[in-house]
């Protein structure tokens, strides 16, 4: 599971990454501070299965019944117009972005950076331009991939060596796009029965736009929302209000024992006495941010990317169905993110290839019933895999 952070230069992507992963990276008020992609671990929040079973357990990833589930976060180089033609660090950016299952587009909602990522007075640049150009860069990238081999695809179809969906999917295989995803877009747009020789430019553009939206879903993080001159800007760009700088400050203060704060909380509590004046002033600024937006938004964006865009579910594999524990007695030791429609056999594959190879059946720990490998799993399920290759 990998989530990519994208956007033009100098909008706070690296700050968002540092706040979400607590990993220090270079950041600066100029374009292309990030040259090589930063990769770190962030967490999404969900209700832990311990609540459903009304049990208590000690796990650093379960805080008061809220489970933290790890994801990989990729912060790639800033994007500029013409990236699909290789401008700026475009080729590297797009190559890095292909690894992502979903994308978080960091937008400077305050309008304090121009289209190239250069600082300008607050409110003098329209963030809607940034939303449009980043989406267009991806669409043009997809279109270039398709046009490059379009004549070859037509020949393969004429010679009955490939079907249309298979031929297109093969060209996008490097992005992890499958033939069934291509087929779904073709059917939705009514292009299944249309001869590829008769496709016009509008057909290609419409197809790649739909394919990009399906296979690289994107959510907008309206960063610097607390600085917006227009209170409705985040709604105009359909973004989640964010302040990555505020989240980063709070995480540092929490680690230093100055405040009590959990990512996603709508407030914080000062727990240290005798705070120096500069730190007190900084926390006062944080309080003013919370008065303008309901939270820093960072955790909200991560959760929406995983649960709203990708619709993933959380399943807990265990080895002891009675104690809901690992072989070492650790209760609910792990939580796995799975696509909707995943089966017990899919879970086995995710746990270990050998366990999947020797799969016999599974046990639903809520009902204590045996289930088959084809049984569809639900969010919050606790599952024991029974396999001839079970470890230990």
Low-confidence stretches: 27-35
Coarse shape: flat
The gyration radius over C-alpha positions equals 24 Å
The DSSP helix count reads 14
> What is the helix/strand order?
EHEHEEHEHHHHHEHEHEEHHEEHHEEE
Label the structural class: alpha/beta
What is the distance, rounded to the nearest whole angstrom, between the alpha carbons of the first and last residues? 27 Å
Largest sheet: 7 strands, mixed
Strands, total number: 14
Proportion of beta-strand residues: 15-25%
Q: Please, what is the average pLDDT?
A: 89
Helix content percent band: 25-40%
List the SSEs and their pairings.
Elements: E1 2-6, H1 13-21, E2 38-47, H2 49-53, E3 62-63, E4 66-75, H3 90-97, E5 102-108, H4 127-148, H5 150-158, H6 164-171, H7 179-188, H8 201-215, E6 218-223, H9 233-236, E7 240-241, H10 244-255, E8 259-260, E9 269-270, H11 277-292, H12 298-309, E10 313-318, E11 336-338, H13 344-351, H14 353-357, E12 359-364, E13 369-371, E14 382-387
Parallel strand pairs: 1-4, 1-5, 5-6, 6-7, 10-14
Antiparallel strand pairs: 2-4, 3-4, 8-9, 10-11, 12-13, 12-14
Helix pairs in contact: 1-10, 4-8, 6-7, 7-8
Briefly summarize what is shown.
Helix content is 36%, strand content 18%. With 392 residues, it is α/β, with parallel strands linked by helices.
């Amino acid at each position: 599971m990998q989530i990519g952070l994208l956007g033009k230069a100098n909008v706070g992507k690296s700050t968002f990454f540092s706040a979400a992963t607590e990993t220090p990276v270079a950041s600066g008020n100029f374009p292309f501070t990030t040259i090589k992609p930063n990769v770190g671990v962030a967490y999404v929040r969900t209700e832990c299965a311990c609540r459903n079973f009304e049990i208590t357990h000690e796990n650093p990833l379960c805080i008061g019944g809220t489970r933290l589930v790890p994801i990989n976060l990729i912060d790639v180089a800033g994007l500029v117009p013409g990236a699909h033609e290789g401008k700026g660090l475009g080729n590297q950016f797009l190559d890095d972005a292909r690894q992502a299952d979903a994308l978080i587009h960091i937008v400077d909602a305050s309008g304090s950076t121009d289209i190239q990522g250069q600082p300008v007075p607050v409110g003098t640049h329209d963030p809607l331009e940034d939303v449009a150009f980043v989406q267009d860069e991806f669409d043009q990238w997809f279109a270039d991939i398709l046009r490059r081999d379009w004549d070859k695809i037509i020949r393969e179809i004429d010679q009955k060596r490939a079907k249309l969906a298979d031929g297109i999917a093969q060209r996008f295989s490097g992005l992890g796009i499958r033939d069934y995803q291509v087929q779904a877009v073709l059917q939705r747009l009514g292009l299944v029965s249309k001869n590829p020789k008769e496709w016009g430019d509008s057909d290609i553009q419409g197809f790649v736009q739909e394919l990009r939206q399906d296979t690289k879903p994107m959510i907008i993080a309206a960063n610097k929302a607390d600085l917006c001159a227009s209170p409705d800007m985040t709604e105009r760009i359909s973004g989640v209000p964010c302040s990555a700088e505020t989240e980063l400050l709070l995480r540092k203060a929490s680690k230093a024992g100055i405040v009590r704060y959990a990512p996603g909380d709508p407030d914080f509590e000062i727990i240290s006495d005798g705070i120096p004046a500069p730190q007190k002033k900084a926390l006062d600024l944080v309080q003013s941010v919370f008065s303008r937006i309901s939270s820093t938004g960072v955790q909200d964006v991560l959760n929406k990317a995983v649960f709203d865009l990708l619709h993933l579910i959380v399943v807990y594999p265990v080895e002891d169905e009675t104690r809901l524990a690992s072989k070492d007695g650790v209760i609910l030791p792990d939580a796995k993110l799975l696509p909707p429609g995943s089966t017990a056999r899919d879970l086995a594959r995710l746990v270990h290839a050998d366990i999947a190879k020797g799969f016999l059946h599974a046990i639903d720990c809520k009902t204590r019933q045996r289930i088959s490998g084809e049984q569809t799993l639900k969010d919050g399920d606790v599952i024991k895999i029974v396999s001839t290759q079970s470890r230990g």
